[in-house]
Amino acid sequence: MPQDNSQGEISTKSKVPDLFPAALAETSKHRVDDMINLQKELFQYLQAANQNWLARIQSEAAMASEFATKLAAARSFPETAAVCQEWTNRRMELLAQDGQRLLADTNKVMEASTRVLADGWASGPGARA
Asked: Is residue 125 domain-resident?
């Protein structure tokens, strides 16, 4: 039984298009590597920030205990007012420090993210050599 070679010839003559070129694969690999590095860096920043905030909470607890002791020892209204004023001043200082720390932590995260974008995320395929 003779076979129709027209199908066989067509299949051998046609080539499958390269849907995933090597350059695209390399660019994708670099982007995945960049994201992994960004995640590692962000994790380190978040760990450090977590430790700083934990230390801050512990100092807050110690300050509250100290305030309660001083308040209990106050024997007059002026002494009580002085203790409350001291507490308020210290709280305002700590709130200012908290704001600065939060800003610094946020800047670290934004700088890391911006660095990844500058290294090729925003410029598209072929940005890296």
From this structure: no
Measured distance CA(35)–CA(19) in Å, rounded: 24
Q: What whole-number distance in Å separates Cα of residue 31 and Cα of residue 35?
A: 6
Specify if 91 maps to a domain: yes
How close are the terminal C-alpha atoms of the chain, in Å? 57
Please compute the mean of the pLDDT values over residues 8-32 and round it to a whole number.
66
Q: Which domain range does residue 101 map to?
A: 42-117
34 and 119 Cβ atoms separated by less than 8 Å: yes
Residue 126 predicted with pLDDT over 50: no
Interatomic CA distance for residues 120 and 25, integer angstroms:
14
For the stretch 23-78, pLDDT in tens is: 777 777 877 887 888 888 889 988 998 999 999 999 999 999 999 999 999 999 99
Q: Contact 39/116 with Cβ under 8 angstroms?
A: no
Number of domains observed in the structure of the chain: 1
2 inside domain: no
- Answer yes or no: is 78 within a domain: yes
Q: CA nearest 64: which of 38, 43, 83?
A: 83
